[in-house]
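User: Working on a comparison across species. This one is Helix-turn-helix protein from Sunxiuqinia elliptica. Can you predict its structure so I can line it up against the others?
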Amino acid sequence: MNSRIKNFMDHKGLSSSELADTIGVQRSNVTHVLHGRNKPSFQFISKLLETYPEINAKWLIMGNGTMLEDGSKDQVQPILFEQQQELQAPVEKERIKPLDISAPTVEEKPVNPLAEAVRETSSEKQVERIVVFYTDQTFREYGPSK
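Assistant: Here's the predicted structure for Helix-turn-helix protein from Sunxiuqinia elliptica:
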């Protein structure tokens, strides 16, 4: 199979690195396959056939037939919905009237989240201690004054 891959590369004028880049495999993978160190994996073969659909899969795998598929498979299939434009009725364009929407006015009062948090916690909870950690791996502990 490696000789057939070489034949295809020669036909396309590709180097091993160009082939590796186009089919999305590592360059060393192509080199090992071409020199007979490794057999091409299923993933390698499927990527090669997906990237180059003109390759005859029977030729690549078993050596039967010609290298390239005949042109009958490459013919353009007719579009299923060719007549779709003819079936659609013309769309009438209407002007859209702008809506007169105004945003509701909201009273903005300054909010101090720190003051509210202190107010909420001060009535329910008491501070036991505050610990400050410094970057030099030391700390300082503060407690309520008595």
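For your comparison, note: Residues 113-142 form one domain.

User: Helpful, thanks.
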